[in-house]
Design brief:
This protein is an alpha/beta fold. It has helices at about 50-60, 145-160, 195-205, 225-235, 285-295, and strands spanning about 15-20, 25-35, 45-50, 65-70, 85-90, 100, 115-120, 120-130, 170-175, 180-185, 215-220, 245-250, 265-270. It folds into 3 domains: about 1-75, Beta Barrel (OB fold (Dihydrolipoamide Acetyltransferase, E2P)), CATH 2.40.50.220; about 90-140, no CATH class; about 145-270, 3-Layer(aba) Sandwich (UbiD C-terminal domain-like).
Length: about 300
């Protein structure tokens, strides 16, 4: 037989593949598939039967191919977690075989361009439970679950690295809206001294392999988890001429969409703490006021 001449079909053979059920028994149903792994007669293979996935495997958007053989299933004697739903067995070569990846939706909230020179794992076997559950996380415009996990792990790591050198550090937080590249640090007032804010801002770039894009320092009365309070501090405790510095041509995540074509970005360091000669005190009821109101709550006609 012959195929329509198209670049996606070049140097690929067509094989007739018989479908198996979950127990590995033949179903009698067959499908015609392009071979990408040099499969042969008698091999148990992994087949992609969906046009978009086939196009991504081939690196040809909208290629006229739907069904591809993408792996030979040849299980190896390997212990795996008993609660695993799906097990992929494969090989990574040294030096690594690489290729283009994507485009995919990413944690920054945007679809990335194709990423070159990503390491390739060659799948040798796929094992699964009956009716396996495929676990995944959503990546897209924040907030989403991936960023809430990062808010804990990245911030804890930064805190552990900075705290020994800076006892004034009280808390660290990587807010979900900051897509894993914004770090907020809270300092304890009684342990602060002149120059400490700039030092800890500079030192923060050592953490997370230097991938933070914006680092912000706030006072201990600011709730770091409330963006309204952080923005309030930015508006009322910050002077752009003296309380910030920018580091040009630096490294951040390769997936950060506003970075230049060379992958470099600027970093912004912000001091949102109250400075010397600050005019004003926070207008909040004292604890004594709150207690007095609660004691007379029913007198006001409230229940």
């Amino acid at each position: 037989m012959s195929t329509i001449k198209h670049p996606a079909h070049g140097e690929k053979k067509l094989l007739i593949v018989e479908r198996l059920d979950l127990a590995g028994a033949p179903t009698g149903k067959t499908v015609l598939a392009f071979d990408t792994v040099d499969a042969g007669e008698g091999d148990t293979v992994l087949v992609v039967d969906e046009g978009n996935s086939a196009s991504q495997v081939l690196g040809m958007p909208r290629g006229p191919i739907r069904t591809l053989i993408v792996g030979v299933v040849d299980s190896i004697d390997l212990e795996v977690p008993a609660l695993a739903e799906i097990v992929l067995e494969g090989e990574l070569t040294i030096p690594a075989k690489t290729g283009d990846e994507g485009p995919f939706g990413e944690f920054c909230g945007y679809t990335t361009a194709r990423v070159p020179n990503e390491r390739i794992m060659t799948i040798k076997a796929v094992t699964q439970r009956k009716k396996p559950i495929y676990h995944n996380i959503w990546l897209g415009k924040p907030p989403h679950e991936h960023l809430y996990v990062d808010a804990l792990t990245y911030a804890v790591a930064a805190y552990q690295e900075l705290k020994p050198a800076y006892p004034a550090l009280k808390k660290a937080y990587a807010p979900p809206w900051g897509v894993s590249i914004v770090l907020i640090l809270q300092l304890e007032k009684r342990l602060m001294r002149p120059g400490i804010v700039n030092n800890i801002l500079a030192s923060s770039l050592y953490t997370r392999s230097g991938k933070w894009k914006h680092v912000v320092v706030v006072d201990e009365d600011i709730n770091m988890e409330d963006p309204n309070e952080v923005l309030w501090a930015l508006t009322t405790r910050f002077q752009p001429a003296t309380d910030m510095f920018v580091i040009p041509r630096s490294i951040t995540s390769s997936l950060e969409p506003s970075a230049g074509a060379d992958g470099l970005t600027s970093k912004l360091m912000l001091d949102l703490t109250i400075k010397e000669n600050f005019r004003g005190e926070v207008a909040e009821p004292t604890d004594a006021m709150r207690r007095a109101v609660l004691q007379r709550w029913k007198e006001y006609g409230f229940k």
